[in-house]
Specification:
The chain is of the alpha/beta class. About 30% of the residues lie in helices and about 25% in strands.
């Protein structure tokens, strides 16, 4: 079988190699990979800017949709012919997150899914119903689970609440869709008017260009008549956190997810006390959360926003496109 590996840092460090196809052992499943979804984490690992260095060669990527082509002994959760997505964490199946037992995520340090075939434990799999196609399903495991965890599982979003999403990346767009599914309204910030104009769904309460309004929390308060939002999906990092704190209502929630704005910056911790804010880190999501969101999207016929689909052997070009920030929606590799 063919696999893509990172041999050195840089987009030119990806190499297509041949490997012997693996055989499933007890409770293991062999997938024929049909589609792979990219995340910004994958870009950082390839470039060497991720906060944790990994040993190379390494098969990258964590998100895929595969067809079950062979099962080992005692497999009960899936059968041959099923289509399934693979959960990000090795052993976080349900309940609260515990790093000491969650195991390794895919695409670093464990080998990822950018191969023609992928061997995994059956415990990691969620069967995908026919309402969701291969390309759509491959977009879900990391970004959608993160948004679902933040808003639904941990956040308990309710009808009539207001959710602030930062940017138009994968997590933010899924959060917008899940908020609307729950009957909440959404306020969106972005540095691109062109991207903001594409967001025309009925649940959008307002849009703010943070480049035009550096003190964008003031605009958020105007949109909410001075009240503030109930939930924030914080993807910018330390530089935007202070603005997020100013944007929430007393007792509001901030879900810390990323650091696209960098790792430098600061804020006054007393502001958390003054706002009586709930601040939590979101470590993607469990298999149970992935299963719940798959079922929710299938039953509501909600479709992920897909930016582009590229053949998997052109992974370097797809990663460069994601790195450029020109994408709108998920970037997918097809097989």
């Amino acid at each position: 079988m063919k696999s893509m590996v990172i041999e050195k840092n840089g987009f030119d460090g990806l190499k297509l190699i041949s490997r012997e196809a693996p055989l499933p052992g007890p409770r293991q499943v062999l997938l024929r990979v049909r589609a792979v979804g990219l995340n910004y984490r994958d870009v950082e690992i390839v470039l060497g800017s991720y906060h944790t260095p990994f040993k190379f060669p390494l098969v990258p990527m964590s998100d895929c949709l595969g067809e079950v082509i062979e099962v080992g002994k005692n497999v009960t959760r899936v059968k041959k012919g099923d289509r399934a997505v693979v959960a990000f964490w090795e052993r976080w199946h349900d309940g609260s997150f515990d790093a000491s037992v969650a195991g390794a995520p895919l695409g670093g340090p464990s080998d990822g899914v950018l191969s023609e075939q992928f061997l995994t434990s059956e415990d990691r799999l969620v069967v995908v119903p026919p309402e969701i196609n291969d390309i759509e399903a491959a977009s879900l495991p990391c970004a959608a689970s993160t948004a679902w965890n933040a808003l639904v599982t941990s956040g308990g979003v309710k009808p009539g609440e207001v959710v602030l999403v930062q940017g138009t990346g994968g997590v933010s767009l899924f959060a917008m869709q899940f908020a609307e599914m729950a009957g909440a309204q959404v306020v969106i910030t972005s540095g691109s008017d062109e991207k903001l104009e594409k967001l025309t769904t009925p649940g959008v309460l307002g849009k703010v260009n943070y480049k035009r309004y550096p003190n964008w929390s003031a605009e958020i308060l105007k949109l909410t008549n001075g009240r503030g939002v109930d939930h924030v999906l914080e993807v910018g990092g330390p530089q935007s956190f202070e603005q997020s704190l100013k944007s929430i209502r007393p007792g509001g929630q901030i879900n810390v997810i990323g650091y696209l704005g960098g790792v430098d910056g600061g804020f006054n911790p007393l502001d958390i006390f003054r706002k009586q804010a709930t601040v939590r880190g979101i470590p993607v999501g469990s298999r149970r959360m992935l299963q719940e969101l798959v079922q929710a999207m299938a039953s509501t016929k909600t479709k992920p926003m897909i930016d582009s689909v590229t053949h998997w052997t052109n992974a370097a070009e797809a990663l460069q496109h994601l790195h450029s920030g020109k994408h709108f929606g998920k970037v997918i590799l097809s097989f």
